[in-house]
Amino acid sequence: MIFGHIDAIAQYKGISPLLDQAIDAAQQMTADAPAGVTELVADRQLFYTVSENATLLPEAGQFEVHRRYLDLQYILKGEEQLEIANTPDCTETVAYDPQRDIGFVQGRSNSITLGAGEFYIVFPQDAHKPCCNTKSQMVKKAVFKIKIE
Question: pTM of the predicted model, to two decimals?
Fold first, then answer.
């Protein structure tokens, strides 16, 4: 897992060409970005969704895991608590669905709080429970899905 402020995201270029394109797009994004899905590279190799949702209590969320995509999640407005766990140490609760590239697990976690202007990148070994907070609030963010090459 990688996290930080969008002003420092360029230092992570070079991990993958698709991630580089996602980083470039995220750096240009503002809090006024319209909701919806945008495909940046054909065949769903790289796309992002901008949405605004209410946060959940951490105990109400589920850890999700992905195998075919990295996630770059960029907070545009609001604040969320992210729970993170090591996927190999977790117990599967809902079997991985290769069509949707998602499975659900439970495990021991750590948490970080991210606000507007901050991002995180999660890899297949990073089970993550996004969009949590101890107080309900609206969070607007862009979630980039980056195909693993």
Answer: 0.95
